[in-house]
């Protein structure tokens, strides 16, 4: 029975686990989580190998592909389907440069600029960061401005960032649920299965969002009746 673990250790030499990948990349990409990493696999951004026990193992080429894909997503707001095409066209070349753009680069906001743009006080941002609703960064994207504006509006009605922590945790659970539903596809390595998974994941996410919205409307209707 000891032969299988021994073979796996040999086959995994020089490869990284999900935890090791996160340790290497999160300093550069603070929003990266294990769930997002698995979702990027579903979207075909990276295709790690697997041990006989089913554990993901990432090569140096996988890490560079992830780094470039995350950079394109963060700095150019490209859809994952476009990022996948860019990466595939580059044949995994880590030196692939981001595509030229005729539009200005997305604006990034330093802390003081973020607070001014969102009309938020420093304490609200601190609370959002400490509860995990917002990830602390040196420069924040436009999406964080929108999120912080929403927190400002909710805070006026007594809904604080700590009350919203479960929403972020719920999003992580939904990604895990989608991954579980597509487990049979994810175990396959052929291009057709990977393409099917890429199409199915957004569809499942949309349906989950519809069901969640209906649940909230139903609960709100009962609360106000």
CATH topology of the largest domain: Multidrug-efflux Transporter Regulator, Chain: A, Domain 2
Terminal Cα span:
62 Å
What is the domain tally? 3
- Helices and strands: which structural class? mainly alpha
Mean residue pLDDT: 82
Taken in chain order, the helices and strands follow as HHHEEHHHHHHHH
List unreliable stretches of 5+ residues.
91-96
- Major beta-sheet overview: 2 strands, antiparallel
Which term fits the overall shape?
A: globular
Would you report the number of β strands? 2
β-strand percent reads: under 5%
Helix fraction by DSSP (H/I, runs of at least 4): 55-70%
Explained architecture:
With 225 residues, this protein is mainly alpha-helical. It has 3 domains: 1-105, Multidrug-efflux Transporter Regulator, Chain: A, Domain 2 (Orthogonal Bundle); 107-165, no CATH class; 182-225. Helices cover 62% and strands 2% of the residues. It is built from 11 helices and 2 strands, in the order αααββαααααααα. Strands 1-2 form a two-stranded antiparallel ribbon. Helix 3 packs parallel to helix 9, helix 4 crosses helix 5 and helix 9 crosses helix 11. The radius of gyration is 20 Å and the shape is globular. It starts with a helix and ends with a helix.
């Amino acid at each position: 029975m000891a032969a299988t673990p021994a073979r796996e250790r040999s086959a995994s030499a020089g490869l990284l686990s999900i935890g090791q990948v996160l340790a290497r990349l999160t300093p550069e990409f603070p929003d990266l989580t294990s769930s997002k990493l698995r979702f990027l696999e579903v979207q075909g951004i990276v295709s790690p190998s697997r041990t006989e026990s089913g554990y993901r193992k990432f090569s140096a080429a996988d890490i560079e592909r992830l780094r470039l894909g995350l950079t394109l997503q963060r700095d150019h707001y490209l859809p994952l389907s476009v990022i996948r095409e860019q990466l595939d066209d580059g044949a995994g070349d880590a030196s692939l440069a981001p595509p030229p753009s005729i539009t200005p680069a997305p604006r990034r906001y330093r802390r003081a600029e973020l607070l001014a743009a969102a009309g938020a006080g420093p304490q609200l941002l601190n609370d959002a960061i400490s509860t995990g609703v917002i990830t602390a960064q040196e420069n924040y994207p436009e999406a964080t401005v929108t999120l912080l504006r929403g927190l400002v509006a909710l805070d006026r009605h007594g809904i604080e960032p700590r009350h919203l922590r479960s929403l972020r945790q719920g999003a992580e659970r939904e990604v895990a649920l989608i991954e579980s539903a597509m487990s049979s596809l994810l175990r396959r390595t052929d291009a057709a299965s990977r393409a099917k998974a890429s199409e199915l994941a957004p569809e499942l996410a949309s349906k989950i969002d519809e069901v969640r919205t209906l649940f909230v409307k139903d609960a709100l209707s009962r609360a106000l009746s």
